[in-house]
Amino acid sequence: MDASDRGKNDIVFLGAAGTVTGSRFLLRHGEKEVLVDAGLFQGPRVWRERNWDDFPLPLEHIEAVIITHAHLDHIGYLPRLYRAGFRGPVFLTHTSADLAEIVLRDSAKIQVEDTEFAKKKGYSRHKDPQPLYDESDAEGVLTLLQTVNFFDPVQVIEGVTAEFFPAGHILGSASVGVEFFGSRVLFSGDISGGDHPLLLGPTDIPAGVWNAVVLESTYGNRRHPIPDDSFERAIARTIERGGTVVIPAFAVDRTELVLVAIREAIKRGTIPDVPVFVDSPMATKAMAVYAEAMARGDVDIRPEKHDPTMLNPGQLTIVTTVEASKALADEKGCIIISASGMATGGRVMHHLKRLLPSPLNTVVLVGYQAVGTKGAQILGGADSITIHGETVTVAAEVVDAEGFSVHAGQQGLLQWMVSADTPPEQVLLVHGEDDAREGLAKALRTEQGLHAVLPDYQQAITLGVQAKSEKAP
Ligand SMILES: [Zn+2]
Questions:
Q1: Secondary structure element (H or E) that encloses residue 210, with its range
Q2: Residue 56: per-residue pLDDT
Q3: What is the DSSP annotation of 443-460?
């Protein structure tokens, strides 16, 4: 680092710049560094390879990490930091910590399994491929977690404080205001449009001048489709004709959303009260975290949802053992919710193998299906797919149920920005493909007169500091 840089504050974009994954933002003041989010790059290989890049700066200067929420693209790099020697505190909300435990252990297992698989098949370009991290790195970094309450400012390191505000995206998710050596920076994290069925909407932007707002832009250029009843109609006609519904769903948050949607449809009488099975060990663990938070009445949960029985549509069975999972083959006229959400592995593959060949059954997709996944193949109308080396005919009905997004659309993002009492000095757009953040930047400039910036990967941007008069006693 250039000596002339010492003393000024900047932010370096080490991920989620021009893409949605790999959120990592480094706040820097001389040799003092705090990392906000430590996410994995996911998706196409060119992005995933960045997980193996060394940070452009020496790691030993990172003194602490702040985490907005427990999705893998925000926390999945933590065990890698641990493996590289990081031993500082990691600040996050209580429920983010509970979910991080589940997500990181699973991620470590997958990293190790993928490496073993590559070794066996000779896929890797390396002679002795090593995992990005393993279970011991995940366990190690879990010992560094320091939980914080929403709305309680916490000292991160000397000269740096952070305050977490509910963001409404998944349980425990936060927008985080950071006071960093005289600069005030607000990280939106991922925020909802206020329509999460269990969680309150994002907190209004806290008062005062923000030198920068780091804003997500996943759906920055589009409006969400108006939710329709395709989800419940698909379930109703499948049950009617004696078929089974299988719903591949992400283990964290999406399973809970689907359960609540089924419960509400049963209450409305649009689908019959049928047996519902949750068949995913990881989803079961995440559900327990949600249920406890609902029973406690956590501040980010809607007051009318402070009751864990709301996760039970009526006839809910949590499938625990492999034997019980296999026994579901004998069930007809039921709903099976299972992971993974994009049919890339997990127990859902067995159900798909069994249910896809019959036109009586239905696969309901409730989340994003990345290119190259079995989920995307099914969604794209493939006549057959390969599961565990076998060709499986797709005769079942396939329904893409929209309306399950937990990200704000453009309108929601703009609304959140107008909640600021003072316009921020700059809005740094992250966590979106370029067309999404360009669309949002244009709207922020023309509709709100804001200074919107699209940072590049590894770009450093200088932060303003608070006006002297504000700091005077
Ligand atoms: Zn997220």
A1: none
A2: 57
A3: HHHHHH---EE-PPTT-E
Sequence-distant (6+) residues with CB within 8 A of 298 are 95, 171
Rounded to whole angstroms, the Cα distance separating 242 from 246 reads 13
Ranking 19-28, 262-271, 352-361 by mean pLDDT, the lowest is: 19-28
Supply 124's token pair.
Answer: 């890797």
Cα gap 441→447, rounded to integer Å: 10
Mean pLDDT of the chain: 92
pLDDT-based confidence at residue 57 (cuts at 50, 70, 90): low
Backbone dihedral angles phi then psi of residue 95, each to the nearest 5 degrees: -75, -30
Q: What share of the chain is helix, strand, coil (3-state, %, to 5)?
A: 35, 20, 45
Residue 204 Cα to ligand 1 midpoint, Å, equals: 19
For ligand 1, the distance from its centroid to the CA atom of residue 360, given in whole angstroms, is 35
Phi and psi at 342, nearest 5°, equal -115, 20
CA 453 to ligand 1 centroid distance, Å: 21
Closest by CA position to 363, among listed 371, 373, 372, 351: 351
Which pTM was predicted?
0.92
Model confidence band, residue 348 (pLDDT cutoffs 50, 70, 90):
very high
Residue 405 CA to residue 414 CA, distance in Å, equals 17
- CA dist., res. 137 & res. 107, Å (int): 11
Neighbours of ion ligand 1 (CB under 5 A): 71, 190
Query: Which domains are assigned to the chain?
Result: 3-222+406-471 (3.60.15.10), 230-400 (3.40.50.10890)
Task: Give the C-alpha distances (Å, rounded to integers) separating 325 from 86, 155, 212, 330, 359.
Answer: 40, 47, 49, 10, 22
> pLDDT category, 404, cuts 50, 70, 90?
confident
Give the pair of three-digit tokens for residue 111.
């990293």
In DSSP notation, 362-414 reads EEEE-S---TTSHHHHHHTT-SEEEETTEEEE--SEEEE------S-BHHHHH
Q: And the tokens for 113? A: 């399994």
Give per-residue burial for 84-110: e unless 16+ CB within 10 Å, then b: eebebebbbbbbbbbbbbbbbbbbbeb
Ligand 1 centre to CA of 87 (Å) is 25
Integer Cα distance of 385 and 84 in angstroms: 40
Q: Is 310 helix (H, G, I), strand (E, B) or coil?
A: helix
CB 158 within 8 A of CB 88: no
Identify whether the C-beta of residue 339 lies closer than 8 Å to the C-beta of residue 374: no
Between the CA of 431 and the centroid of ligand 1 the distance, in Å, is 10
Nearest Cα neighbor of 35 from 13, 17, 54, 18 is 13
β-strand pairing of 160-166 with 154-157: antiparallel
**CB 364, CB 399: distance < 8 Å:** yes
